[in-house]
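Support request, please re-run this one:
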Amino acid sequence: MNEHILPPPGSRGRLITFEGIDKCGKSTQADLLRDALLAHGVPVGTTGAPGLVVREPGGTPIGEQVRDLLLHGGGDLAPWTEALLYAAARAELVAKVLRPSLAAGWVVLLDRYVDSTLAYQGCARGLGIDTMLDLNELATGGLMPDLTFIVAVSPAEAAGRTAGLPDRIEREGPTFQERVAEGYRQVARHFPERVVVVDGARPAEQVAAQVLTLTLKCVENADV
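Re-run finished. Output below.
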């Protein structure tokens, strides 16, 4: 597999994001899509890292430091502190990685983005989805995904999946994840033009086939 496929000159990039509650399988789907797109000759990755699936928070040195604080730091964070830290890491990612890569024609696959804040901090933390949307409009300069996949599974099913030691957010428990799931349902209703909800309870290969078909349509219309 060639992970160094370069975008053709003058091509327009695409931002594809994966969302869902913790342990929903979104990271697996992002990796499967990356492999499938590369096999189709699609230039996946970023300007500095061909073949990379970018994760959030993270993707930059500052973003990775913020990620460690948010997910593995000791003690509780006030909801607004949490929201602002996510927004700060996102602003850095947009400026340093996403905008340059999209301008160069890369198809960027991103594991979490603005919709995570809408669901987690906006709904589950009670800060308000519209308020979080306004905050992230400022942080990103209005950069939104071209296509978003919400991998939907029940919190009960997700809780039964093993994924190493839980991070600070995962330790919130099933009631919190139920609120996050409701947040994602609201996101899907709010952005029907770009959000696709896929059934994450199906075998991963079936989900991946649906995701690939829809992504190829999005990529093929990249110059429209």
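The chain is about 50% helix and 15% strand. The mean pLDDT is 94.
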